[in-house]
Design goal:
With 83 residues, this protein is an alpha+beta fold. It contains three helices and two strands; from the N terminus they run H-H-E-E-H. The protein has one domain (3-82). The chain has helices at residues 3-11, 25-39, 73-82, and strands at 47-55, 58-66.
Amino acid sequence: MSGRHLKQVVDKDATALVQVKKNQSKLFEAVDDPFLAYWKKEEVDQVSLTTSKKGHGRQEKRTLYQLPLSLSGELKKEVADVG
């Protein structure tokens, strides 16, 4: 998500869904620890949505987890500069 798009989300007090991959090392590191702690919670205390779809000869299962944004250091400053 670009800074311009993030600013639009902040300006509209909206919610964004962001896909993070391992090749985005700073961002991946920033969100990895909160997810590890989140997954240690009982399932009943987790907010998630799972979908299953069969297509193209394979079964796909995707799970989306919702948790509060918790950034520190350089990434926190980048997000604060947008708002």
